[in-house]
Amino acid sequence: MSITKHNWTKEEIIAIYNKPMMDLLYEAATIHREQHDPNVVQVSTLLSIKTGGCPEDCGYCPQAARYHTDIEGNDLMTVSQVKAQALRAKSNGSSRVCMGAAWRNVKDGEEFDQVLEMVRTINKLDMEVCCTLGMITENQAQRLAEAGLYAYNHNLDTSEDYYKEVISTRGFEDRLETIENVRKTNVTVCSGGIIGMGESVEDRAGMLVALSTLNPQPESVPINALVAVEGTPMENEKPVEIWEMIRMVATTRIIMPETQVRLSAGRMEMSREGQAMCFFAGANSIFAGDKLLTTPNPDVEDDMKMFALLGLKPQKPFVKVSQPTTVEAADSQYQALGEKPKWSRPGHTIERNLQSSTKGK
Q: Do residues 135 and 177 make contact, with C-beta atoms less than 8 angstroms apart?
């Protein structure tokens, strides 16, 4: 059996990434079969509960208010709207609903209370609930845990070195602190990144160093291929080749054997054959649904046809970690503290981000 290692170096990971493809696939598939059922894939549905208007300057994101991307923003969805979407996702084979809000960080108040009620509602549907809401404090993480949250997503995006070429409005250390706050609860961690943003193989390895040296390692690691959206600073980045995606998935599987590796954004550009290779290399989770927050995603029926073709089965909920207990708001031990944490604002200038923000004015 493969032993989880927490002291991977960048050089070791680059050596794995650059192995001859057949050797890389064999090693990754062997480890995958030791730790997971190779014919079972966890299916998540990503739901944008609050779209657009984000104050951050992430160079890949069409939801940043400063860029001109024609994204239609919407206010926070209601609990009943979210419940209806969750039931639809469940009927389509999803075991998890991931709710995303275009916030820099969570702020105590009416909207966060509404999100907590969404978490309670979905957990009672016997579905895993994940949230990605930006930076959170320890108390906010505890309140989410009490409500029945199963996972919290906070991607590192890229290596610490390349991070400063992507985002200038928040620091890499803030992402690590948020993950640390989540780890103080019983909520699992979902954290990964994006390839195809102009980074080097060394940067991809650097991101995997940061993830794999966390102890424990994230229970879920999404690997995203950049979807270059017109109006963002990265609109002209060339598409990620499928071989890069396969190598990234296989490398992630080898260095994080127990983690669920999610094939995330960018699947619209992947053939069934390419996705099959990713599953063979160790991917065992996908996002289903026709949209990932704001970017296109394969149709659910197409995914189910692919599953049937490959003999894959959707994973049932709460297989890896038992279902959290929901505590009602009236019985909560954790109350809003009205915190105003000082999350960092590095403030350096990223030229292509600045150009995109002024374009069209």
A: yes
The answer to whether the CB of 52 falls within 8 A of the CB of 71 is: yes
Residues pairing with 51 in the sheet:
74
Residue 341, C-beta contacts closer than 8 angstroms, at least 6 positions apart = 105, 135, 137
Q: Does 143 participate in catalysis according to the annotation? A: no
Amino acid at 166: V
Helices (H), the chain: 10-17, 21-35, 79-91, 110-123, 138-147, 160-163, 172-183, 201-212, 242-255, 272-281, 300-310, 351-358
Does residue 190 carry a catalytic annotation?
yes
b (16+ CB within 10 A) / e for 1-28 = eeeeeeebebebbbebbebeeeebbebb
Q: What is the DSSP string of 20-32?
A: -HHHHHHHHHHHH
Q: For this structure, is 130 an active site residue?
A: yes
Around Cβ 156, how many Cβ atoms within 10 Å? 23
Please write the tens of the pLDDT for every residue from 19-61: 999 999 999 999 999 999 999 999 999 998 988 778 888 888 8
Share of the chain above pLDDT 70, in %: 96
**151-153 and 128-132 beta bridge pairing:** parallel
| Degrees, nearest 5: CA angle 334-340-343 | 115
- Annotated active-site residue in 96, 170, 175, 262: 262
Element (H, E) at 130: strand 128-132
Active site includes 61? yes
The catalytic residue among 54, 143, 183, 253 is 54
Rounded distance between C-alpha atoms, residue 232 and residue 60, angstroms: 6
Catalytic residue among 96, 130, 183, 204, which?
Answer: 130
Q: Please, what is the average pLDDT of the chain?
A: 91
Q: What is the pTM (predicted TM-score) of this model?
A: 0.93
For 119-168, how does the pLDDT look when each residue is reduced to its tens digit (9 = 90+)? 999 999 999 999 999 999 999 999 999 999 999 999 999 999 999 999 98
